Structure formats: structure tokens, C-alpha cells
Amino acid sequence: MYRSHTCGELRESHIGQEVILAGWVQKTRDKGFMIWVDLRDRYGITQLIFDEERTSTALIKKAQALGREFVIQVKGKVIERESKNENLFTGGIEILVKELEILNSSLTPPFTIEDQTDGGEDVRMKYRYLDIRRNPVRNNLMFRHKVSMEVRKYLSDQGFIDVETPYLIKSTPEGARDFVVPSRMNAGQFYALPQSPQTFKQLLMVGGMDKYFQLVKCFRDEDLRADRQPEFTQIDCEMAFVEQEDILQVFEGLTRHLLKEVNGIEVKKFPRMTYDEAMCMYGNDKPDIRFGMKFKELNEVTKHREFKVFNDAELVVGIVIPGGASYTRKEIDALIDWVKRPQVGALGMVYIRCNDDGTHKSSVDKFYDQDDLFQIANTAEAKTGDLICILSGEKNKVRAQLSALRMEVATRLGLRKPDEFAPLWVVDFPLLEWDEETQRYHAMHHPFTSPKPGQLELLDTNPGDVKANAYDLVLNGNEIGGGSIRIHDRSTQEKMFDYLGFTPEQAKAQFGFLMDAFQYGAPPHGGLAFGLDRLVAILGGQETIRDFIAFPKNNAGRDVMIDAPATIDEAQLKELNIKLVSKP
Amino acid sequence: MYRSHTCGELRESHIGQEVILAGWVQKTRDKGFMIWVDLRDRYGITQLIFDEERTSTALIKKAQALGREFVIQVKGKVIERESKNENLFTGGIEILVKELEILNSSLTPPFTIEDQTDGGEDVRMKYRYLDIRRNPVRNNLMFRHKVSMEVRKYLSDQGFIDVETPYLIKSTPEGARDFVVPSRMNAGQFYALPQSPQTFKQLLMVGGMDKYFQLVKCFRDEDLRADRQPEFTQIDCEMAFVEQEDILQVFEGLTRHLLKEVNGIEVKKFPRMTYDEAMCMYGNDKPDIRFGMKFKELNEVTKHREFKVFNDAELVVGIVIPGGASYTRKEIDALIDWVKRPQVGALGMVYIRCNDDGTHKSSVDKFYDQDDLFQIANTAEAKTGDLICILSGEKNKVRAQLSALRMEVATRLGLRKPDEFAPLWVVDFPLLEWDEETQRYHAMHHPFTSPKPGQLELLDTNPGDVKANAYDLVLNGNEIGGGSIRIHDRSTQEKMFDYLGFTPEQAKAQFGFLMDAFQYGAPPHGGLAFGLDRLVAILGGQETIRDFIAFPKNNAGRDVMIDAPATIDEAQLKELNIKLVSKP
Fold first, then answer.
1. Which of A415, B143, B182, B330 is most enclosed, with most CB atoms within 10 A?
2. Which residue of A has its CA nearest to B129?
3. A-chain residues within 8 Å CB-CB of B200?
4. Correct CATH for B291-416 of 3.90.180.10, 3.30.1360.30, 3.40.980.10, 3.40.50.300
């Protein structure tokens, strides 16, 4: 027994007790005749005191030799503190130390173990085990634990069964790239790590499990954009005998439960929006609705003049920045430059300032008179003191650009409050999306998503218009979950594979087991998966998922702490029947 | 909404209600004028009734066309059953069907979906999604869910934090073979899948997480013996500032909690036994103590005669089979044949029958007279009516052989009762074990296990005698958990690596991050891991882990349902910078 209490436990009610504590030396203050040591563990900080009058010289010497992050064990008496620290739960007491044992010494850490550290990202990742000692990182990991436990509890209470699905499965070229695992026992063959347990959870529904969930690692070998990880965790769920409405109810319940238990916030029924509405009003299928600034389409009200840019545009659309009329010309130019950056890609931006005197000042005064501008402002529902920002061009592009501007402006105005939560459902996603690169339609969700009733016939004539039984749960501008009602009959699934460019042989080789399963009494079913890393980050009021992962990888997919990946022995390669291809 | 109730829910209190049910057709009984259908889902079975008087002819026809495993939805009224079925919770009622919709048809399943199925192992694995519909398999998976939930709840309540550790880590040649994952972004390099999160959980302790747990998949590329899986699940735990006693307390608590919550059994304090005692008394470091038949060493009492086999043997040891004197000569010969099988490998077996008249009959009467045999029986604590079975030879071998015999006899006598639970701790394991193949000592547990205090010095002189701070939790003859107090200082860890044959360069390349971490204030720590698959099987009163895994692999490491592993595209190989070596 290394300790009788933790460093976060002792209070004034313990005064007079003999205790044993163990932990890390957070800091020492040495006044010569008196030494204070802040002793830290996961649970808190307790002040130790050594003084000339009450402590032996040998012990004082020992205490003086303590360095930061030394691991020590002390025995002593809980005494009342002279100057209490109201900010600390243990601030009313201190330990008058009688025995001190150094359990382990420490080199000087490469960065300070403080909430605000002097360590940069790289050094903190290399010494992640020291980074985890810092309160913000440890609290994030404990927060994640809490969310995971609540998720499991809620779903289990709702009758969901946690079933573990395999990690060594089969590679499927559809979708993102798989990580593969050479099989030693089956020479020349490979397992793949799952991008999600999609087919297995569907088979569990065919198997009558009725309600399934799992918190499960998934893997994608993608070129990593900022804040993506090659391995990530999903809350993976599936239900049988359900329609979309049943699923939305259950997972709205889960999300509401989490917001209540974890954040202490009660949220009303989540609004719902179709994909088309979301794109139209926010230019984005995961709108942040914590604030307004909805899109206003302005083609009609702008087209009666000779401004060719607007007249030729598929879409003329604006947002109103509340109070933006006060922006200086320089500030507006900065906004224009911002939308013209290659990452956003707009060719320009038209603005209309709604002056306090009721007049309007615009960058296209040459084309539109005060009456025109008044009409535009009216349509945009702008008020005196606002600024209207208008983009135009090809519909999909201009929506993405204006959405980026909307988010940027909201961030600058402080409208994206991390402690405010605005969930919503986006429903009726398109079944297919056009892929410019391959010049083909791809499944927007995945090939197992069912089209809405009666829409299958549209596939051959208007594929882009086919809506799917697919839905996303959006929170504060992030997709935190998504799912669909699945196809559950062989012929529809075959038709879908055919449409997506699979030959019957390919479909059989890759998903034959699933289509076979559909012939043996597959029930209607559907499900949803949450991205746990993102969900936890957002509930934690942050945006970076890496801060909620104990041992994350960097953008090159490397773990810089353990230095992985790494080369392996020739003998290992040989056993696996593979060899390296030397790069030219 | 496909259903208003499940098939396990309706009772006599629902009589008169209009309900909607959905599920699978378990069976139909068609008497022409009356048809009964057993409708099944995860929750139970409800009887549907169609009859001439109350059901339309069209509906009767539709019902007559129903095949086994069709998925249907029915609307109807709950009515009282004429002949009630006491064995069914829903046995007091039936549903008078008014509407019937076939949601999906089914081919005839390749085996019957019954508790006792006619399907062999291979076909059930290929159609695992149908096998899961069977009560025994589904109940096993639900049982596993319950155990997992209870484990998480208990540990979380004890202050353990569930931290997810990475799956894409670094290969280490020590121990079993790793599965590896070629990295596309880091050409020529590989990740490895973890055999356990050992180093990460130790780093979490260095990082001050204090108490960690995780239910986590682990991977070992081993030649699969019966009932081993290439991927398996661990309850992985670690604690800081603990001694062995603290860990035994916590996990004895967890195990007791599970036995109580899951099996409804209260177990007293677990007995403890040293490794040496276990080997001496049971010839086995995971003794089944549900029954006696302890080993009796007989060298002393047998050596005064001219029986060279015993006199030359390092160990002469016997067990007493209660009531075994009644075995016929043929039965005894069968036992002798059993121990002589290559899997056991004994050269022979000596028996002594303790006859009812007080005489003894032995296979070595030539060497030992009645007095001798009485002395031997006395030493073996055999009673009238018992049979003593004696093996002799090299100590380790003969212990293993007699242990096998002991278990076999107990099984035959029905002493290994699946509903009886006898946990115990085996402690003080040797630090090292001799490996005949490499002619070297290996870490018995793993290279991070600490020697008992003061024993490090023995390493150079009597390495086989060094005891470790290592312990196993044994339940009914199975190791269900094992762990150790770890080394937490760099110099001891270096010494250990050196002893195990690592060059300093190898140690640094593979575990440098851990040894670095030990320099920055690593606390004393230790932990334990349970094999969840095995634990669940034993708690479930069964021995085969495969029956508790949703989608297990066969002995060749294949998933026969999805047919994995499989070949992958040339393009995929190329991206990964590897190519196949064609076998000669």
C-alpha cells in the first residue's frame, strides 16, 4: 500500500490524521527554514510542509534535493494551513512530513507540466506520456471515458447488445483505401482492417440480434488532412424492424442524454432539415445553426440590370452580417481577399452596406441604383447597420464558398460559442454523388443505403435526383453521426452494385456473403454511426480530435513517440511471402 | 414503426389489444381449417392463429404459403389461448391475425434454426448469420455483452479510466509473431497490430492516469491450436502506486462481482498458492481445484525395493481416484493407454487397487509386498475402494502427464461441474523459463515483469530460481487473467533486456521510448489482463471460446463466411511498395 489517501482527497476534517501520500513533485518553494512541496497525482494537489522547527535536518536536506516530477512517498500528519488556498479543494490543509521516500527521480522534463505549457506540439507528442500528466490532456481523456461509459449505458439500457465484430476482414476496393495485413498462413492473401463494421452489423441484423452497438476502432488509409487519424473510433449501431423515424428517435435520445449527463444541458426536439434545404439555406450539409446568417438567393432581384456577372450566374446568393455596415473599407477588402484565397476560391465578392441614414453603399453602384439596392437588401432581410456579402457563379461552388465565408464571419463575431449546442438532423440525402475524377456516380453514403420508396426507378433516368433513406446528425457545424436504412433484399442490392459499376463477378467476390444472407429472411434494418473522437471533442467544447486521443498519429500517419511505422526483419517478410519493392 | 410489441412481450394482461408484431416464422402447423405460426424474434416466440371462422380465405392462403424463416409483419388482436403453454412466457395468449405482410421471403436454411440443430460446424460457420438466430448462440453473445458491461461498470466505479490505445503500433520480435500492416505513406515500413497494449498502459501510468482499463482486441499470428483465435479480446488493466496485494484485491473484487452479478454465486476469499506449490500439488500452474486428487510424491516410500523404474526416477508421483478400485482390468488398461498416447507421453502407469478387504493389488506386485503397498497407499492417503495411479520420470514431464490424467479422470467422474466456480491466485511465478529450442532463458511473463525484491542478483547465478512479482488468476483449470508488478526504473529494465539477449541497440530501437519514459518520474506500477473470450466462456459454463465470438475464425485463421483473407489487387500492392514472393 503506497498511500492511504490520494492527493485530491484530504480536507479539514482529516486534520490530525497520520496519512501516507504518493505522487509527483509539481513544484517546491524553499525559504531555507521552510520548504513547501506541491505533491500532484491524478486526483489533485496536496501541499507538503517541512520546517526547521518540526522537521529533522536530514529530512529537510532530502526535501531540498527534490526536483520537478520526482516521484515520492511521504508519511506525515494532516495539519491546518495558515494561509488557505480557496482555489484548491485541499487548500485548507497541508501535510507536515515525517518520512520521505524518493520512489523515482526525474530528469528535467522537456516542457513544463502546467496547464499552459512551454512545449510545442512536436515535443509534446514525442513525450506524450509527460503531456498526459498535464491537466488539460488528462481531463480530456477522462471526459472521453465519461462519454463512452454514458453511451454504453444508454444504449444497453435501450436493449442494444454490444457485439464485437472482427478486425481481420476482407479488403474491398469500394470507398477509401484499406489497411491490409498479409496472412502468413494463407500465402499471397491479405486481411483488411475494417473501415467500419458495416457488413457485419447488417449480418447481425439478419441474425436476429435486433439491436446492436459497439464502440469500435476503424481504419482508413487516406492521405491525412488536418485533424484526421488513420485509426478512429466509431459508435456503431444497427437496428432491425425500423424505419428512419425510429432511428432518429433513438439516437436523438442518446445525444440528448449525453448533452444532459455530460454537459448538463437540456436540448429540445432536434430540428430536421432536408439535404436540399440545408444546401439552399447554408450551402452546406452540416450547417452550424447556433447562429443565423442564412443564405438569401438573389438571382431574381438582381437580374433586371446589365450586371453580366450576376445575370450569367447560375446562383447569386448573399448573407447578411449583422452590424457589418461599420466595417471599414479595409476590413471589407480583407473579407474579399479571404474569399479569393485558393482554399475558398471565389472570384470576387459584392457587398452592400446598409447605412444608418437608410441609404445603401455597394461595390456595384455602377449597375444598381438606390432603389435596386433597397430591393436587394429587402430580399436579403438586411437591416440598417448590416452588411450584405454576395457571391455568384456555379451553384455548388458558390454555395461552398459562401458557406466558408459564413463560418469565418461567425467565428470572427464570436457566434460559434463552444458551450452552446445546436444539434439537427439533415435527412433525404442524395443516393449518389457525381465524382469528377472518375466521371461516374458513387454511393454518397455507401452501396448498402436504400433509396427512398419508389425512387429506384429514377436511377436510370435521373440518378442525381434519387434520394436515399439516409440521415446525418449535425452538431455545431460538424457531422457527428450518419446512417441510413439499408437495402435488405438481394435484387435491389444487385441492382445497386450493378449501377455502381460492379460486374456481377466482382459483386459476388466481395459481397456475395451479404447477398446470400439477404436470401435467408433478412429483416428491414438500418443504423447509424457516430464519430466518437469528433463527438467527444465537440461535447468538450473543442474542435481538435487529437486532443482527445491518448496516443494520436501525426499527419504522416506516424506515432512519433514509439517511432512507428518502422522497418521489419527480412525473416518476417519472408514468412509473410512478400518483399519490398525498392523505389526507383 | 414495424411493431408495437416484440415477440417476447405479450401476456394475458394484453388480451383484447390490437398489436403489430414482426419477426421470423419459426414453424407453422396447418390443420387446413386452422393454422398456427410460431413467430420468433430476439425476445421470444408468440403464437399466431388463423382460422376458417375468423380469418378471410385470402389471408389463410397467404399464411399457408409461409416458409421457415420468412420475415413477416402481422396485425391482430391478442386473444386467450385455449391450450396454454406453461413453458413460454407468452404461452397464455395468441394473436388472431387480421393482416399479414411478408417483409422478406427465405430460402430453406441449410440447417434447422433450433437449439439442437442438424448443422455441422462448417456449415454453421459459413452461414454464421443463421447460426446466430439460434438461441444458444444468441444467448452466448448476449451473455458476453452482460459480462462486458459489468466489467466496465465495476472498474469505472473503482476509478479506472477507459483509455483507448492505438492499434497501429510497432513490431517487436520478442514474444509471439506480430501481424503487420504495410504503410503506404512510409514506404518500406510497417505497423504492427498489438499483441497487447502493454507498453502503452505502462506509459499511461508514467503519464499519471493512475488507474487504466480497456476492453481491447489483441492479435497474435500464431499457428492456431484448437480454440485459439488470431484476434482475441483482453480486459486490460494497470494501476500506479500499487503492490501485488493491491492488485489482487481489486481484481478478486472484479471477479467476485462478476460471479455474483452474472452467475448469482457468492465466492469467499480466493485461495492463493505459489507457482511451486501448484506444480507440486497439481503438476500445473492453473490447477482446477473444484475437486481434490492432489499429487502425492512417493519417491521416499517406494525407493527401498529393487524397482529400478521408480528408483531411477527424478519424481514418483501419484493421484488417488476415489472409488477407482471398482475399475475393471480393461478400464485400467484403457487409462494406461490414455496416458501413453503421444499427446500425454507417459511410458507407463503403475496402479494400486485398494481392495475392500484391506488388501492391495498392484501392477508391481513383483517388487512391492502388501506391507509396501499399504505404506504407499497410506502416504497417498488412499482409502479402501480407491485406485492409486502412479507415474514416474523426469519431474516436469511427469507432472504434466499426471496433471493430464488427473483432469481426464475428473472429467470422466463428472467432477468438473460447469456451474461450480473455484477461483484461485497462483503467485510467485519464475521470472524466466528455459527454452529448449533456443537453449536460452526467456521471460516467462514478459520482459517488463519485475523480479521479487532482492532477487535481481540471482540472475547471474541461478536464473531459473528468480521469482517474479507475477500472478495468475485461475478459474476451473483455466488461466483467466495474469499480470505482474512492472519494472519502473531504467537500469533494471536495461539489465533485463541485456539478460534476455537484447543488444543495447536492439533494446533502444524497440523499447527506447519506454526506457526514456522511466527517466522522467515513472511511478511504481503493475497490472493484469484477463482473456475476455475465455472468461466469458467459463462463466457461461462452457469451454469453447468460439461459441462466444460472433464471427470467429477457423483453425487456418480464415473467416469462412466472408472468405477472408483473400488476394488483393496489384495496384494495392504497388501502392504499398510490396510484392508477393511466389512460392517455389
1. B182
2. A207
3. 550-551
4. 3.30.1360.30
